Amino acid sequence: MEEKKFNQIGVSFKGSGSYVPDQILTNQKISQKVDTSDEWIKSRTGISERRISSLGDNVTEMGYKAALNAIEKANWDVKSIDLIVLATSTPHDLFGSAPSIQAKLGASNAVAFDLTAACSGFLFALITASQFLKGGGFKRAIVIGADQLSSYVDWNDRRSCILFGDGAGALAIEATNEIDNFIGFDIRTDGERGSFLNLPSKNAINSITNNIDFLSGGFAPIQMNGQEVYKFAVREVPIIIEKLFKKTDYSSDKVDWLVLHQANQRILDSVGDRLKIPREKILSNLEKYGNTSAATIPLVMDEAIRNNRIKQNDIIATSGFGAGLSWGAALIKWG
Ligand code: COA
Does ligand 1 lie within 6 Å of residue 286's CB atom? Predict the structure, then answer.
């Protein structure tokens, strides 16, 4: 295929990294807690096990380890990093965890901030960082997706607790004025359907003084309408990817890899079928990690890069989707 040249600044992909906690929670173990079975979970979701954070595995730690990994692969001096964007819905510090990651890395010349868009978070963060690079002024960025949903799952709710796990992934991206490997993107939200998947605040009324109350902070466990989320994903994801293909003059047959948010194997298969992308081109690591929210896309990509499946110049169609509701797609060329 002919290389597209751009006059404006483009983006290239330089490295990937990931981290998952050691603790493994199998379907078998979940079935000791709620009324379910390994067979039911595997056949409905494709998931066999997931990783669960233990003390020390918070989003800052996991995100830091994934970022460090990506920086090493890119062979960058940490001082050369201009921007760190952390996609997470479960920060270690609600005021923002990205600056702590910046400090741990020693990336003192970077500006670092959090971005929340649930399971679409990594994609939204990748797009955000790319726009910073293309806008000029920023040369090197680390985009991290990290989540610790195990802290917010209702472990007595068999309809949702089977899906989620913890982890982190990161990509190192760089501005260049020679090529643009960030080919295109599209993103959407629909707050009208937001109630299908929530992690809402849950406040308790307390008193400051006799006649002044305040609401102490906290969060309720994840609430999910699985069937509605499923229908949303299999409908909207193929539509947004097809729209992106049209916009960028690409098509399914030009794609080397379909990298979807890892929510459910049946969603991956169904989206692949609708786009006529064969199964062997659809990356999946759901079996081992389940849905790690903002971490899934960089986690599955990093694995495929390390295993030499994703290679230099491969075309990747990627899509994130989830709470918000939010969804989006990006088309990139690796390298
Ligand atoms: N084990 C055994 N039975 C279960 C179960 C479990 N873990 N969870 C639900 N069931 C039961 C239900 O109670 C229901 O029983 P009933 O028919 O007697 O009422 C039956 O299985 C079917 O439930 P249903 O909700 O229709 O199952 P499903 O085929 O839609 O699968 C999900 C449930 C959650 C796996 C599926 O809807 C899904 O993956 N949705 C998308 C969720 C998602 O990806 N969320 C994150 C997006 S970022």
Answer: no
